[in-house]
Amino acid sequence: MAFGIFQLSLVFTIGLYIALASDIAGAIGINEIPLSLSLKDPEDAVISREQNVVLKCEAKSSVPGLSISWFHENTPLLANDTRVQISGDGSLNISKTSAKKMEGSYRCLARNDVGAVLSNPAQLKIATIGREFIEQPDNVNTTEQQPVIFPCHIDSTPDAIIYWERDNKTLPQNARYVPLPSGALLITSTHSIDTGFYRCVVKHKTLKKTKQSRWGQLLVSPPSVTSSPPQFLPLNLSLNITSIVGENVTLPCAVNGWPIPVLRWVYNKDSLISNSSVLHLTNVTTDLSGNYSCIANNVFGEVSMNFTLNIFEIPHFNVTPMSMSYPSARMVRLECKVNGVPPPKVTWLKNGAPLELIGRIKQLNTTLVLSHSFMTDAGIYQCVASNIAGQIWMAARLLPLFSNSRPHPPQNVTCQPFDDNSVCLTWNSPSNVTIQAYSIYLFNSVKGYDFVTNYTYYLANGLEKNSEYTMYVQSYSNDPSDQSNNVSCKTGVQGQRNLQVEFLSESSVQLIWSHVSNDFLCGTKKNLYKVQWKKFDQTYTNVLYTSHFQKTISRLQPSTTYDFRVQSTTNKNDMSPWVTYSPLTNSSEVTVMPTYSHEISSTENHTFSSFVPIQVEVHPISPYSVNLTWSDGDDNLSYMVYCTDVKEKNNRIMESHSNFMEVTNLKPNTLYAFKVHAQNVKGMSSFSQTVEVQTPTDVPSAVQNLRYKVINATAACVTWKSPMFMNGKLLNYVVSYTSNKNLPFEKWHNIYIKEEDIYINQCWSLKQDEISIVLKNLSVDLQYTLVVRAVSETGSGNLAAPITFSTYSKTILLPNSEEETVSGEIDYKQKLGVAVGITISALCILCCVCCIIFRRRCMKRDAIRRTRLTTSNNYYASEVAYSGAPLHMRPDSCATETHEMQQLVMSDGNTHIPPIETTHLDTKGGIGFPNGQLNGNLKNMQMNGHVANGNIHITENPRYDYHSCNGNQNSKKIKRDCILPQLSCLQENAIDNIQELQDGCLDYSPNKPTSNHSLPLHTENSKLPHKVFDVSDYNSNCNSEFVHIYGTKDLDKEVDLNHTQMTYLDESFSALPNRIVSPALAPNG
Fold first, then answer.
1. What pLDDT is attached to residue 1016?
2. In sequence order, which ranges of 530-572 are alpha helices (DSSP H)?
3. Which of 148, 576, 746, 1084 is a good FRET partner for 505, with 20 to 30 A between their CA atoms?
4. Mind giving me the DSSP string for 127-164?
5. Considering just the CA atoms, what is the radius of gyration of the chain in Å?
6. Contact 707, 786 (CB under 8 A)
7. Helix, strand, or coil here: 227?
8. What pLDDT does 635 receive?
9. What is the pLDDT of residues 1016-1052, one digit of tens each?
10. CB 712 within 8 A of CB 728
11. Where is the chain membrane-spanning (predicted)?
């Protein structure tokens, strides 16, 4: 059974995994496909001059169209090149006659119908060996136990094999004989038997040549008795050694000296690794890279030689790219993760050629990301990783899937420069489908941009100034199209305005101009030009609008010099210059004047009145008002003046009954346009020509939030906030202060704070737009007045309200070391004190509220308690009746706070319930009410609402009657004659101290005579006193009920045993031993 369940679970898990995997694959639409092309890299070759060479390129393809081509030094080898021949299997044959000229690197390219793969380079070298030795052995004289080196070096390609001979015999194997990588021989410790002649023999396997060096004689003398410090022998080795992981490395260390120096090898200056003359490292790894120090010392000194060993690792892949097919317009990632030492450089090839990373094609670290897919993205991609140790590659195929109903790419894509940071693209929409959107891709050698639009034009903003960009467009319907043709253009404004002024008459001229590249809105061929003119010394300008490249200006004043300018309304930054025209010379010259960007709505042509205001002139009065005048008509005309904020397009309409008006509430340094039309009972005229004027720039407003704080007795920190309206470029702030208010303002002390020094040496923790400065060398005995004002290009700003301060409060009460921090400490202490004070106040208020609420509850319950009897059991209610209505008690949480005697004795004048009657009562209890009477006179045991001071004796009977388990008074009528005979039915419960009434004990008959020993049974209409206890048994689920009835004396005694009595023992109230009995209590008091 268990095995069956296991099988079922396994099948379910596998099915779920496959389903999820298929769902995920279907969701993203990416499927793995075979590569279809494999290639084995050609190998390096070393040949002699008279030898042919064959370089193999082994390629396999699972699709048709396999072909092999070769590159020499990244230059294609053509099929008609007579120096080489490409065989049918793709091998490259190089003849011996051209081998010398064909040295270098070779790469083969394998191509099929899907794509192409490029191999790693293979090096072709010509074998050579030098004619002479560069270094040969020399004669050497040494003493025993000293090292000796015989050099040997000759140029060879590849490296030749070197071995040594002594006295025409091959040098025997000995640990003291160490061949060095340079070809030299090191004898680590010479002996007398080493005396002889030495030479090196070089063999070149490829050329099959052998060369022998000259002989070098070694003479070994007995050990020297002359002391000498350690000294290294020259090794002719580089101290920077490189190796590849897995190779062997030898580090020699040859030292002369007497006594014989002690050698030790230290790794990275802290680890002792060897004590031999030669350090051998076999099968090295990258962990062994570092510094190796050979240290030699004897009693006469110490020397050291440091080698740096760099171990490189050929790159190897951790993650390789996956061949895949995917739907169009998907983002595709080709993962390629590679390790090596040093970290490899990763480049990508597409079909054997370097991949251009442009716009949507990006390389993030080593991963290739294609943000969109085109048909041109199909092919084979290679991830090539290389470092100093070697180069590897891995290929993957991408196959984007396109729908047959996809739209054609946009046609006739054109690009035109617009301004310094924008270009305008336009294209034609394809006709085969309805296009929903277009994607535009722009890129240069540094950065790429993506844009989306629904139109057949787009103004690409935010480009680099004067930069060349390449771009293409892609259309989208239900499926994306392929990309359009690439177009290129450069940012920057093309064309010039070239405004010409031609004379027509004494009062009219004609303006002619040319268009600039940013005159037209992108995607449109129409533009509205703004024609402006003014008198040479005039502060306002007249404005007309036209969509043509010429305009006639009339109603000019004869013999008056005018300035003309034409601007494009679409270009807010049109900086076309003013052209000055003088009718006397009929000539014009270009003059650069201040320019303003603006646009005014076209004039209206409704004409009802024959009079049109002319000669409209406007003159600034102040930064906030101008004076407007125009030609006047008859007396029945009124005028409507239109004032427009050119930048914000806010309009104001004002009425005037004369031909002049002062326009107020303007903003400083703002360009306004004014036009006027007349109106009368006949209607209104057309508008006058528009005139423009720029209000003057105002001075800065007053600085804000000027305040100070005293640092010490001679210094203060002043801070303020920048003006709300700067009205121009800020130049500096001027802080003026004096101790003499009657001194003229120009003689006050002034401190100038330049704009570049505003945030230097701050003395206050400030916000970004706040400034502070320290005033020094103040006098503690003087009071200072201070003002601050801002200064801009327009002039000095308005003065802020002055402040008055003194450093008297900062007399030298603190040490100098504490003066700098006192301000911060005061601020901190003030904040801390406020926080602590608020917290304490809140806690006090909370405590008071809680006390008031709790006291009111206790007082209310205490008042109720005074009118009730208290039982010892606080968990269950009891009922006590004394010749009247019963009294009910309930638990009270405040009972523990009340004195015990206050619970036992009521606070009114009558201490006992019921009132005390003259009845005999001894200490053992009596008949009737147990707390009813005293022996002798009745005594009031309460004074001023409290129990009188004295001795209290409480007698408690542990027996207690439970009359009702549910706490309710038993209403059953009990037969009086049954009580005494059935007393035996009352049984005492030893555990719960409960007397239960056996079933069927009480038999009540209304007509049965009453016994002399019994009291009449208290009924509803009876006024005889009785006492009933109803207490629930909290230790059992008892539901029995019984009624305690006072009838006979014996029964009274039995009942009285269940009552607790209290006797007042203080005899100060009476000569008799009076006793006051408390109300009934439970067994626990």
1. 39
2. none
3. 576
4. -EE-SS-SB----EEEETT--EEE--B--EESPPEEEE
5. 58
6. no
7. coil
8. 66
9. 333 334 333 333 334 334 333 333 333 333 343 444 4
10. no
11. 832-854
Model pLDDT for residues 263-300, shown as the tens digit of each residue: 999 999 888 999 999 999 999 999 999 999 999 999 99
Extract long-range pairs of 894-899: CB within 8 Å, 24+ residues apart: 894/857, 894/858, 894/861, 894/862, 895/865, 895/870, 897/858, 898/862, 898/865
CA dihedral (880, 885, 891, 896) positive or negative: negative
Give the 3-state secondary structure of residue 183. coil
* Whether 25 contacts 56, CB under 8 Å: no
- Higher per-residue confidence, 483 vs 1049: 483
Residue (of 542, 409, 545) closest to 477 by Cα position: 409
Whether the pLDDT of residue 115 is over 50: the answer is yes
Element at 566 (helix H, strand E):
strand 562-568
Q: Which amino acid is at 751?
A: I
Contacts of 498 (CB under 8 A, 6+ apart): 513, 514
Per-residue pLDDT tens over the stretch 180-237: 988 999 999 999 999 999 999 999 998 999 999 999 999 999 987 788 999 999 888 8
- Sequence-separated (6 or more) residues with CB below 8 Å from residue 464: 421, 444, 446, 447, 491
Strand duo 625-629 + 683-684: pairing = unpaired
Q: Residue 423's closest CA among 456, 454, 469?
A: 469
Contact predicate 196/216, CB 8 Å: no
Q: How far apart are CA 72 and CA 55, in angstroms?
A: 12
Could you tell me which of 336, 350, 358 has the C-alpha nearest to residue 397?
350
Spatial neighbors of 215 by CB under 8 A, at least 6 apart, are 137, 197, 198, 199
Q: pTM of the prediction?
A: 0.52
C-alpha angle 339/342/346, rounded to 5°?
55
Contact 936, 943 (CB under 8 A): no
- The whole-number pLDDT of residue 825 equals 52
Quote the pLDDT of residue 1072.
Answer: 41
CA–CA separation, 441 vs 418, rounded Å? Answer: 17
DSSP 818: H
Q: Which of 624, 604, 597, 593 minimizes the C-alpha distance to 684?
A: 604
Percentage of the chain surpassing pLDDT 90?
A: 33
576, 567 Cβ separation under 8 angstroms: yes
**806 sits in which H/E element:** strand 803-806
Question: What is the average per-residue pLDDT within 745-755?
Answer: 88
Distance (Å, rounded) from C-alpha 22 to C-alpha 4?
27
Q: Which residue from 406, 400, 380 is spatially nearest to 330, judged by alpha carbons?
A: 400
AA identity, residue 849? V
Report CA-CA distances (Å) from 309 to 107, 241, 1019: 32, 5, 119
| Interacting residues of 13 by C-beta distance below 8 A, sequence separation 6+ | none
Look at residue 99 in the predicted model and tell me its pLDDT. Answer: 67
Backbone angles phi, psi at 1056, to 5 degrees: -65, -20
**Is there a contact between 53 and 344 (Cβ–Cβ < 8 Å)?**
no
Among residues 706, 703, 702, which one has the least CA distance to residue 804? Answer: 706
Torsion of CA 261, 264, 265, 271, to 10 degrees: -150
Alpha carbons 1082 and 1084: distance in angstroms, whole number: 6
Q: Is 711:823 a contact under the CB 8 Å cutoff?
A: yes
Handedness of CA 864, 870, 874, 878 (dihedral sign): negative
